[in-house]
Every structure is written in structure tokens, then in C-alpha cells.
Amino acid sequence: MNPTVIVVHGGGASNISKDRKERVRQGIVRAATAGYNILKEGGSAVDAVEGAVTVLEDDPEFNAGCGSVLNENGEVEMDASIMNGKDLSAGAVSAVRCVANPIKLARLVMEKTPHCFLTDQGAAKFAAAMGLPAVPGEQLVTERNVKRLEKEKHEKGAQKSDHQKSLGTVGAVAVDCRGNVAYATSTGGIVNKLAGRVGDTPCIGSGGYADNDIGAISTTGHGESILKVNLARLTLFHVEQGKTLEEAADMSLGYMKSKVKGVGGVILVNQAGDWAAKWTSTSMPWAAAKDGRLHSGIDLGETNVTDLP
Ligand SMILES: CC(C)C[C@H](NC(=O)C[C@H](N)C(=O)O)C(=O)O
């Protein structure tokens, strides 16, 4: 039996307030625990990453699903992708408006169509055909995100730090008892984005990648930067070249910073059950479950370890 591991992230961020930090921590732990339980019951890595990301899409603290940031028109447009490292099958959706869980739609694209990627209206039509309930767009708009958009529009042009732009993209990577790896990533993108803007999250090789022979990775950060360097596949390239997961993450994040001044974060696992969580943003909420233990943190140098129930 292979060791089962799941790692989740809740985006890159800075200066999270104290009580929000607690809610973020709880959400991340809840998602990692849900994913780990799926693995423990013999579920696949794909089931586990979809399950963990669904928990985070349903949590308004995170920038995905019902907590998604708003575009310039005050609307939610979400991106998501998922990949199975067993056969490199992949599914992605972009600019979807009216589904509660874009990651479920991405999985359906992967498993029920001959394609990898559906967008906008075609994705919406496919969701309806698959019986995914449509939710009214307004239902995904939270008070906090209305305020955040107003603030962003008001401050436009003024000097502002990256954390204002977006917060709480979510992702998961896992390895199951059969040695298969998978990733899932989901986001509302960046606040005040142009309608129709597509980020890194749904793009295979940028928002994530999974290959049993190398490992699985999910990314967060400035989408345009991540796209330019193909952050996910670049990191796994370093792993293929013999680097450890941590070394590979440091190299690719360092490259993105020096080359295009982009910050972000990554989580990784491989078939051997090694895992890593690394970031160049000020902080990144993350949690990893392995051998009945839960490791978690938000800020640099912070790791809490507890026993899982
Ligand atoms: C400033 C960064 C680190 C915040 C981070 N943003 C994303 O991951 C955005 C997503 N990759 C995109 O571009 O659509 C977050 O949401 O936590």
C-alpha cells in the first residue's frame, strides 16, 4: 500500500486579520480532513482533491465558488481545473458564472467529454446537460467582495500591495493508496478583472499538473505571471531533473520572481508520499495530512502538527 497524502492551500495573502486568520485556518483544516478521509476509505486521488476543493468553494472565506472576487462589472466569473496523474487526463473550465462548484464541472469535462477545456456559455450549457444545478449569479456575490471591488475601483492607480487584488484561491494535491496522484485548483481570479479575463488556474501546466511518474502540483499567485512561466510544469521539470520537491518549488518560484516579478505559492506531492508547501507571497494558508497527522500553517516559519481524528 502506498502512503496516502493530501495537501491543500488557500491562496497567497498578506496581513490577514486575526479573526479572519482563525476562520481561514479552520476552513483549510476542514478541507484537508475531508480529503484525507476520502483517501483513507480507499477513494482515488481525484476524488480526494475534488472533495477538498469543493469544501473550500463552499466556504465564503476563500476566493473560489461562493467567496469569489468580482470582475469589473461586479459579477463572479470562475476558473477551475483538475488532472489525473494516472493517465494525464485533465479537465478545465473558465469564466463560468452560475455553478456552485466549478471543480465538479471541470471533473465532468475530464471524464464525460473528449475535450480538456470548456469555457463560458458552452461550459454553462454542458453543466446543465450534466444536471449540475444552476445557481443565480447573485447568490455567489458576498458583501465582503462587493466592498472589496468598491475599494479596488476607488484606489485604482494608487500604490497598493498585492494582497488587495485577490485572496484565497484554493487547491489540493493528493496521492492515493494505489499510487495515483492528482491536483485540483479553483478561483474567482483577481478583483476588478476585465470580463472574460482567464487566469492561470484553468490552464493545465500553469494552475497545476499531475503525472504519476513525477508528482502533482497546485499553484496560486499572480495569474499572468504564472502563465508566463508555466509555473506548475516548470516546477515538475525540476523534479524530473532530480531536485527535491522543496528545491524545485524554490527554483521555479524564484525564477517567476526574478523574471516577471510575480509572487505566488505551490503545494506538491509525489508517489513516495513526499510533500511540500512553498510561497513567495507574504503568507499562504496550507495543510497537509499524512500518517494520521495534520501539519498546517499560514505564515513563514509557522508549522502546527496535530493528530487527526
Ligand atoms: C496575490 C496572489 C498571491 C493572491 C492569490 N491569487 C490567485 O491565486 C489568483 C489566480 N491565480 C488568478 O490569477 O486568477 C489568491 O487568490 O490567494
TrEMBL record:
<dbReference type="InterPro" id="IPR029055">
    <property type="entry name" value="Ntn_hydrolases_N"/>
</dbReference>
<dbReference type="GO" id="GO:0006508">
    <property type="term" value="P:proteolysis"/>
</dbReference>
<dbReference type="GO" id="GO:0033345">
    <property type="term" value="P:L-asparagine catabolic process via L-aspartate"/>
</dbReference>
<feature type="binding site">
    <location>
        <begin position="220"/>
        <end position="223"/>
    </location>
    <ligand>
        <name>substrate</name>
    </ligand>
</feature>
<feature type="binding site">
    <location>
        <begin position="197"/>
        <end position="200"/>
    </location>
    <ligand>
        <name>substrate</name>
    </ligand>
</feature>
<dbReference type="Pfam" id="PF01112">
    <property type="entry name" value="Asparaginase_2"/>
</dbReference>
<dbReference type="InterPro" id="IPR000246">
    <property type="entry name" value="Peptidase_T2"/>
</dbReference>
<comment type="subunit">
    <text>Heterodimer of an alpha and beta chain produced by autocleavage. This heterodimer may then dimerize in turn, giving rise to a heterotetramer.</text>
</comment>
<dbReference type="GO" id="GO:0008798">
    <property type="term" value="F:beta-aspartyl-peptidase activity"/>
</dbReference>
<keyword id="KW-0645">Protease</keyword>
<feature type="site" description="Cleavage; by autolysis">
    <location>
        <begin position="168"/>
        <end position="169"/>
    </location>
</feature>
<dbReference type="InterPro" id="IPR033844">
    <property type="entry name" value="ASRGL1_meta"/>
</dbReference>
<dbReference type="GO" id="GO:0005737">
    <property type="term" value="C:cytoplasm"/>
</dbReference>
<protein>
    <recommendedName>
        <fullName>Isoaspartyl peptidase/L-asparaginase</fullName>
        <ecNumber>3.4.19.5</ecNumber>
        <ecNumber>3.5.1.1</ecNumber>
    </recommendedName>
</protein>
<dbReference type="GO" id="GO:0004067">
    <property type="term" value="F:asparaginase activity"/>
</dbReference>
<keyword id="KW-0068">Autocatalytic cleavage</keyword>
<feature type="active site" description="Nucleophile">
    <location>
        <position position="169"/>
    </location>
</feature>
<comment type="similarity">
    <text>Belongs to the Ntn-hydrolase family.</text>
</comment>
<keyword id="KW-0378">Hydrolase</keyword>
